[in-house]
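Exercise (ungraded).
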Amino acid sequence: MSVLHCADVSVATLQKLLSAKLAQAPAFFLQAPIVLNLSDVSQTPDFVSLKKLFIELKLVLVGVTAATPEQKAAAHAAGLAVLQAGKASVKAKEQTVAQPPANGPANGAAPTSAVAAATTMDSKVVEQTVRSGQQIYAKGTDLIVKGAVGAGAEVIADGNIHIYGSLRGKAIAGASGDTSKRIYCYNLQAELVSIAGNYWLSDSLQGKFWGKSACIKMQDDSLVISELV
Amino acid sequence: MAKIIVVTSGKGGVGKTTSSAAIGTGLALAGHKTVIVDFDIGLRNLDLIMGCERRVVYDFVNVINGEANLKQTLIKDKRTDNLFILPASQTRDKDALTREGVEKVLNELAKDFDFIICDSPAGIESGAMMALYFADEAVVVTNPEVSSVRDSDRILGMLSSKSRRAEQGLEGIKEHLLLTRYNPERVEKGEMLSVEDVKEILAIELVGVIPESQAVLNASNSGQPVILDKDSDAGQAYLDTIKRLLGEQVPFRFLNVEKKGFIKRIFGG
């Protein structure tokens, strides 16, 4: 979720700042959920007017973080959630971080680095079989497929890929270059597996793991297959 | 409310039109008022399989363009009560179908009929998309070989993403697998995928297995749906399929190699 840091949270200032920001990439933040970080703000803002402003700008103000008790009370009255600040979110201006839910575990699950922050986003879950010709991309997160991945289908994730059926198509994990990502599948019959750009075709996958459950990872600059459990 | 069933496969020549004719006839035999719509504009075949090729006056495209009304265009089957055919145009191409036009015709048919069977053309282009777009259920016709199975997989993906039900976020199309030209002897020799192999790959519910049979070719040549040939194995397998489509539990037949009897083994045959 995007976190907004601003020392002056008056409606006029925010309108100017946000309009300028949105003009750069109107589609990127369209109806994006925004959390307002109040660590640099001492007075209690008018949350009701702020909510209206966000709606006008086609954003959704969902909650506040790093709030004082008075600010919390005012936010609560305006129907906003009060969130615990994640460690990674403290410095960054506007950055994608995972926010633990308001009633969830507090700082225990908080991300500690930028990479961790990306992968603790909600995983993308596909409930059914991915059919030939379909392509699924889990941007910035893990991909979980509960069915099979058919021949001619492609599943791509910036994070790890978990497939609880047969993998007959292509699976590409760590698509943004993270070599620590892995592919887990229940039945390996893939056309191609790739981690961070290093790939194997099905010829290289023949052997004792073909048709069996397997885990594929990067080790010393090359792919290795090992037992799933 | 009429139920729209698309008979589709992706790959050509697997038995879509034969199956459409058999399923439409079977549903009509079971007492449901049924129409079979040929979506294969430009490559009309259904009229031949149904044996009504000499009775085609107007066609689907004429109805869409308002050049004829449905009553003039629908051909009543002479053998089976409750059964009608809406033939495709042979002189036009598949771009003659518009989504609005098809919707209008299907809505009009839905007022009168219990089942609308859409016989899809092969491929994944506009004609096939038009045939599956409005479907409530789909019969995916597959031969037990790898290219047919992969094309069926592709069509299943289309059904769950490109149909009206998918686009409007309604309950998905109910998908049925119909395995045709099944030859248990070749399966045993490992020359053909088995029922279990295909079920495992496509992961949808099996509605019927039609054995490879001389009766199918004979039926096509004589313009009589094979389901009417009740003595043939293929005809019986289609009858079982209709029962399953209508929700009955029927055990599968013709899956195993028939053991030859003592006399046959001695004298051949």
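Further reading is listed at the end of the chapter. For now, observe: Chain A touches chain B through 16 residues (CB under 8 Å). Helices of chain A lie at 11-24, 47-56, 69-77, 114-119, 202-205.
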